[in-house]
Amino acid sequence: MPIHHLARLLLFALLTVLLCGCSISQALRVRDRTTVDVDSMIADISDAPVIFLGERHDEPAHHDLQLRVLKALQAQGRDIAIGMEMFESVSQPALDAWSAGRVPEEAFRKVYQWSWRHIPWGMYSDIFFFARDNHIPIVALNAPRGIVQNVAQRGFGSLKAAELADLPPDVDARVTDQFLNFMRGSFPSHGRSGDAFRHIAEAQMLRNMVMARRIYDYLAAHPKKVMVVIAGGGHARGGGGVPAELRGNQNYRIVLPPVPPLDEESVTPEDADYLLVERF
User: Fold this and answer.
1) Distance, CA of 189 to CA of 64 (rounded, Å)
2) pLDDT at 4 over 60
3) What is the pTM of this model?
4) Mind listing the domains of the chain with CATH numbers?
């Protein structure tokens, strides 16, 4: 066989292996360190009123897994809402109109692109279409970006009354030494000390608190709903993330992908209930 034909066959075989390995079929059950299939994981988490599905934003396999969980919950007859880090409350009317089928795709794309400008539409489009086609509410969770940026630059104490009025009333972006240590381990590129580092930690905590309050408020108003929360792994993580800021002893389950510094060796039950097993 000519060498160039052999090279093509080898390349095709490699691509086939890589593509087949992209889907996620297993997860580590953290409490007993047992590897289970995704269907077993979904069955285990599906009775919780809040399900956090962490992600690396640019990883298609994580979004495929999220959609799989949503479809499984719907098949079980659960009344679903999708909480998304990707949107701020200013976009809620557009989200409501989308889920009701009243917004053309092109118009909603613009809302998405304004909201989450660095990640292509295609990463989340299947989730959006599933929500629209089944009239599933999408709930905007994130804090206003302008306020987050101001806190990151100058600290929470610098916010003016008008900015505070745009936040839930009990959000103060307090950061403990424990949270600062969490930030040092999870976000080493931000530096490790000084006022600049504290301000960045406060901005992260602000987002955690606002998302937690919006989850709580939505479920308080819709007590029969199950909210599936789609957010970055750092926000979905139990210790140092949104779950720790939920009020009212809300029951929740957490599924995370490996996100530095978490891996199969270091993850604990405080971090997540399940850690996805990725082949590549």
Assistant:
1) 29
2) no
3) 0.90
4) 3-277 (3.40.50.11550)
